[in-house]
Design goal:
GO terms for molecular function: gluconate transmembrane transporter activity. The protein is mainly alpha-helical. It has one domain. It is globular, with a radius of gyration of 22 Å.
Amino acid sequence: MSHTALLTIAVAGVVTLLLLILRAKVQPFVALVVVSVGVALAAGVPAADLVKTIEDGMGATLGHIATIIALGAMIGRIIELSGGAHAFAHSLIEKFGSRRTPLALTVAGFVLGIPVFFEVGLIILMPIAYGVARASRKPLLIYALPMGAAMLTVHAFLPPHPGAVAVAATIGASQGLMLLLGIPVTAVVALLGYFVSRRLTRREYPMDPVVYAEVYGEPEAGDGGGSAPASVADGHGTAVLTKPAPSETDVRPPSFGMVLALIVTPILLILLGTIGQNALAEGSTLRAVLTVLGAPMVALLIDVALCGWFLGARRGWDRARIAEVMGSALPPVAMVILVAGAGGVFGKVLVASGIGDAIADVLDRTGLPVLVLGFLTALALRAAQGSATVALITTAGILTPLLHRADLSTGQLSLVALAMGAGALALSHINDAGFWMFTKLAGLDVAAGLRTWTVLTTVMGCAGFALTAALWPLV
């Protein structure tokens, strides 16, 4: 089949995918599988090979990421239900002082965003922003905007978040190098977001009366207000405002140092494994030990055990309670894992059908560096369909043949993965559940959300790409 025909099929497949997700409101996992089957058949993949292609794509992807995402979710859930997230954020506010509370919440969003998914982190920290805004009588957006943007930055860029993990597995990047290079990049981006948000919040925006009453305790709150509403996603990925679950913290919240140590432990283990593989001689015992301990799955498994002991067993949870908390982390991420696997199927179909090579030829002829192509492709898909995770997974599938042809080093592939993360961070707008979640919790209308949240995430995404590009000559 000619390149033109293959490219036409690819474009038709992506357009169909967008229409199914955006217009028909089909669940992304189902939409990806349907489009993958349709593209495979249209591109001439033999019917006898179709099922095997789908199984190979799903298995290869989930073999890398399912365990990591599940373990990461368990860590976040234990930190959440033990009261560790609240204790950590309040400790930062005390350490930074009242004048720098927005910066303290930005740091809290960044650090807690590493083990905790964006949606969950926003639900955990938004009540704290509510309380600070109520006490200071300042606009909620001053505190909420940089905090939420910092969490979204980590979600788009770094493992163990699903998009970053899937990209690393698909293109062959190193999760250790992504953390080693990505943590400084995302820290700078989050700090930039803090300063940009200060400018964006100089003017006040209209605030939903119900949320205003919740935050500032006005009489029209009905029940006296005081507790912030939480937000969850319905079956179509739309943010829905609900009341928060009852707190499960006890009288002895975890200390700041304990929570920080548990968040940093898997990161340090993964980084040690990466350093050991690059600095120690092959065959050495120390290198072998660090390689095992630094494998993302092992590092996260160790941290789950540590969290279960220090945040659970030592604070009164019995084994049944610990198992229950760990189990409760899995249902919310099950669909995320399946979507990631379906994205792997789509990527496998692109390769098996020859579409990947056709796309690689076209992209190669543009003359654009692979770093730029990774950023622009993720940016376009993020703007078109909303989900950062789907944008990252689809971009990785599209660009993998080109990246393999370019014969890049592991470090360069890791920077390409970060560039994709920068594209997935930008342009969070009305087709993104995260946009609706933030604006509903902050009491913003659509226009105000576009002027603040969308502008800020786009500026931060572009800055993240610029920093990633600046590192390219160094790897």
